[in-house]
Amino acid sequence: MSRTAEVVRNTKETQIRVAVDLDGTGVAKVSTGVGFFDHMLDSFARHGGIDIEVETVGDLHIDMHHTVEDTGIVLGQAINKALDGFKGIRRFGHAYVPMDETLTRCAIDLSNRPYLIWKSYFKTPKIGEMDTELFKEFHHAFAMNAGACVHLETLYGENSHHIAESGFKALARALRTAIELDPKTQGHAPSTKGVL
């Protein structure tokens, strides 16, 4: 069973292509025009064990908002599509990721009932050229379009780079567990409803 998908989304603000392989080895080919965001997506792929290709051309002459949010939308859609109705997966995952002085926790439910609880706060308004408020926008867009209930909380931390990166890594590690195939589900959606 191939758990791959490709999604293309073109608007007046962004042109995006995302391809994913849920059973990959964490290889990323990412180009968004935002260096730190590329670094975060590369980390997401590596720690999630998911191969991703992301090609985003956005209206960076305005700001980075559309580029980051819309990439989250399309990445979420691609993962949702590759999951094919959430059949046969573990569904739940969680992770704690320490990064120097920072500790971030993520719990995820691939329930097709999207939600985001976000409790991460940044000490600086930017990391490099990237506005730190955009990290919430990415995670919200991703959760809504992946059909994922995501609770992400930085328990403590000081350095904005560490807070952002531990968040991406925690989401990736939690997702890695949730998308694993579980033989006990016998290929069905893991729900008393029989469908997610």
TrEMBL record:
Q: Name one Pfam family in it.
A: IGPD
The GO annotation for biological process reads: L-histidine biosynthetic process
Query: Which superkingdom heads the taxonomic lineage of this protein's source?
Result: Bacteria
What's the catalysed reaction? D-erythro-1-(imidazol-4-yl)glycerol 3-phosphate = 3-(imidazol-4-yl)-2-oxopropyl phosphate + H2O
Protein's pathway: Amino-acid biosynthesis; L-histidine biosynthesis; L-histidine from 5-phospho-alpha-D-ribose 1-diphosphate: step 6/9
The listed locations are: Cytoplasm
Q: What is its main location?
A: cytoplasm
Which InterPro entries does the entry mention? IGPD_sf, ImidazoleglycerolP_deHydtase, ImidazoleglycerP_deHydtase_CS, Ribosomal_Su5_D2-typ_SF
Q: Does the keyword Lyase apply?
A: yes
Q: Report the protein name in the record.
A: Imidazoleglycerol-phosphate dehydratase
According to its UniProt entry, this protein's organism is Phenylobacterium deserti
